[in-house]
């Protein structure tokens, strides 16, 4: 499922009846032969390599082969071929095992921590639909009445902002009639305060014209109109006075928060309420200036990644994005500065590292905040490389806003507003129920008990695997999966695995023949690229599956978070059964929620690290 089922592997449009399949692998299908030809170079370097028939490393026959289970990097027709090749293969095979051990030992020394100075107000990976019923429970059979009306339970651990929840509710098939229960877990107080504020506003102002559009603006825009500012002010004033019970009633059952956690959220709301946001006032927070300073003071890596991003866009897109980086506006149409006289208080927070300096804790401590919050200053705290364009798949945005829009800002605003409208109607029908869990996911199981929530059909752990080892995530979440649903799944994602594996990053360190091949492939498809642009684009031509296998084996070997380290390198087969779960084999293209690997070059504006990988885990079959 690197491309959604039923879509062309090149342009990702819905497939017509007559299709053009790839003749070398069983997976890729195109809408026409032009698309197939256009994708030929990239696809043969990537998916065909991964899913197609393999050449025997001994006799070079193409056909059904078995992988060398020690190194996962050689393929053989049979045991005889393997034995014959062993003297030649031995050295490579051992080197790979040694490299896995080395990665493992580096990983166990690596200090991972979950906090960041920048709250995840915009999200970072591409938004996912948590349910995708048509790929899962509803796939392949006629859907009965009971199926149409059943409820689903989803846990989003390390949820960040609301993008996934909004996309899920907005993507539900019309005939679905059940309710969706979502538990939002994140340890970041500010992110959660913002989520609850937005949910409250959607109910409180459901009758207000254009509330969906206003909320889209408030989500992403540095400056807002008086009307939007007043909506925020009114909501904050009301929220601050509410008990958990009252919040539940005021949102008609949409939002459930424990009283203690509401106390922490209230502090953030008070902080936002107290800010002077009128831009013409000299005492105003002046977000534009703060944002500018933040970028100027950011390190070379951030500046570099922003300019690399810009360099890869076409001239027109680049001009528009430069404008966005300059003004930070996200509005339904081009506007006059006079019409947006307020700073957006919900884009501010307190720096996590300030807490660390003062209280020596690696994470935001709600109880500390509760007592000492006025020691700290609320300021603009968005990572300088964040944009509203990164999480929404730009292919879908184009598809849904076709017509004559001159600007990406207007198109994206329209797209998100449309999702928000659907989200609002779904809420209005009383079919969305949200429970808030403000805690580290490591403590979540204890928390789960007080939430009075059945087990989950889906558990999404965002990119927590960047901070917490896979085995720990599975150990925590396996007992919380709904065992009666064979589609129940834990989804794990990792954004930065490639930084830990030699040669996974196609940068300057890749051995020359390999790098040359990548560059040549890439240039065949994009003849006019500058060297800087190539650096980013070649990710789409670099098949890192075997590197990722090494990483997984090393990572599980390293243990961590009270999971003991292993003496020997675990085989990939045993990794697939980590913590008694059953991994969907991404080498056979079996992921059903998040592609193992996205194609980033077709998604221009959507640009998280191209090395993102997703792994999906099921309960073992009886
Ligand atoms: C990097 S974000 C990704 C969010 C999501 N993928 C998105 O794009 O919107 C990860 C979130 O996990 C949260 N987080 C980090 N460590 C956590 C932990 N141990 N428990 C719960 N949340 C955690 C962070 O506060 C952050 O909001
Ligand atoms: Zn096509
Ligand atoms: Zn193919
Ligand atoms: Zn052979
Ligand atoms: Zn081997």
UniProtKB/TrEMBL annotation:
UniProt KW Metal-binding keyword: yes
Pfam families per the UniProt record, alphabetical: DUF4470, zf-MYND
All copies of domain MYND-type, residue ranges: 56-93
Keywords, in A-Z order: Metal-binding, Zinc, Zinc-finger
Organism: Patiria miniata
Record's protein name: MYND-type domain-containing protein
InterPro entries xrefs: DUF4470, Znf_MYND
Domain of life of the source: Eukaryota
């Amino acid at each position: 499922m690197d491309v959604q089922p039923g879509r062309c592997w090149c342009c990702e449009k819905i497939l017509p009846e007559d299709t053009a399949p790839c003749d070398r692998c069983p997976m890729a299908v195109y809408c026409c032969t032009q698309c197939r030809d256009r994708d030929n170079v990239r696809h043969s370097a990537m998916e065909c390599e991964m899913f197609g028939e393999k050449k025997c490393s001994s006799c070079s026959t193409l056909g059904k082969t078995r992988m060398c289970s020690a190194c996962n990097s050689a393929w053989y027709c049979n045991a005889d071929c393997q034995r014959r090749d062993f003297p030649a293969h031995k050295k490579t095979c051992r080197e790979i095992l040694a490299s896995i051990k080395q990665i493992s030992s580096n990983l166990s020394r690596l200090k991972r921590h979950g906090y960041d100075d920048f709250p995840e107000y915009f999200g970072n990976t591409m938004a996912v639909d948590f349910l995708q019923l048509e790929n899962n429970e509803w796939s392949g059979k006629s859907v009965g009445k009971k199926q149409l009306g059943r409820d689903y339970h989803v846990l989003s651990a390390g949820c960040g902002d609301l993008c996934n929840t909004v996309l899920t509710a907005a993507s539900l098939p019309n005939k679905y009639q059940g309710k969706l229960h979502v538990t939002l877990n994140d340890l970041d107080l500010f992110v959660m305060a913002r989520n609850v504020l937005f949910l409250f506003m959607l109910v409180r102002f459901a009758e207000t014209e254009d509330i969906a559009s206003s909320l889209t603006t408030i989500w992403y825009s540095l400056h807002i109109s008086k009307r939007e500012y007043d909506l925020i002010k009114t909501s904050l004033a009301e929220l601050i006075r509410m008990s958990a019970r009252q919040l539940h009633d005021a949102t008609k059952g949409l939002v459930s928060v424990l009283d203690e956690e509401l106390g922490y959220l209230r502090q953030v709301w008070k902080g936002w309420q107290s800010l002077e946001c009128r831009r013409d006032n000299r005492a105003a927070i002046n977000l534009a200036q703060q944002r500018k300073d933040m970028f100027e003071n950011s390190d070379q890596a951030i500046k570099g990644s922003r300019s690399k991003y810009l360099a890869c866009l076409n001239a027109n897109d680049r001009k528009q994005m430069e404008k966005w980086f300059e003004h930070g506006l996200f509005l339904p149409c081009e506007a006059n500065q006079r019409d947006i006289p307020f700073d957006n208080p919900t884009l501010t927070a307190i720096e996590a590292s300030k807490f660390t300096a003062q209280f020596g804790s690696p994470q935001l401590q709600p109880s500390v905040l509760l007592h000492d919050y006025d020691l700290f200053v609320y300021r603009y705290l968005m990572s300088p490389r964040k944009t509203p364009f990164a999480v929404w798949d730009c292919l879908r945005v184009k598809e849904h806003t076709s017509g004559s829009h001159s600007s990406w800002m207007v198109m994206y605003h329209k797209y998100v507003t449309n999702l928000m409208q659907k989200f609002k109607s779904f809420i209005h029908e009383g079919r969305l129920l949200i429970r808030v869990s403000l805690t580290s996911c490591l403590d979540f199981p204890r928390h789960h008990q007080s939430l009075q929530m059945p087990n989950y059909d889906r558990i999404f752990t965002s990119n927590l695997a960047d901070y917490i080892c896979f085995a720990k995530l599975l150990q925590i979440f396996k007992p919380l999966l709904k065992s009666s649903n064979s589609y129940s799944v834990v989804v794990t994602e990792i954004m930065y695995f490639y930084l830990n594996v030699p040669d996974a990053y196609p940068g300057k360190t890749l051995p020359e023949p390999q790098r040359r091949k990548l560059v040549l492939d890439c240039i065949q498809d994009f003849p006019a690229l500058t060297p800087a642009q190539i650096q980013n684009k070649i990710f789409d031509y670099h098949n890192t599956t075997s590197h990722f296998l090494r990483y997984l084996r090393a990572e599980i070997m390293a243990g961590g978070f009270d999971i003991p380290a292993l003496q020997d390198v675990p085989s990939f087969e045993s990794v697939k059964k980590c913590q008694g779960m059953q991994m969907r084999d991404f080498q056979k293209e079996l992921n059903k929620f998040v592609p193992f690997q996205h194609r980033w070059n077709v998604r221009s504006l959507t640009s998280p690290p191209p090395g993102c990988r997703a792994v999906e885990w099921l309960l073992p079959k009886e």
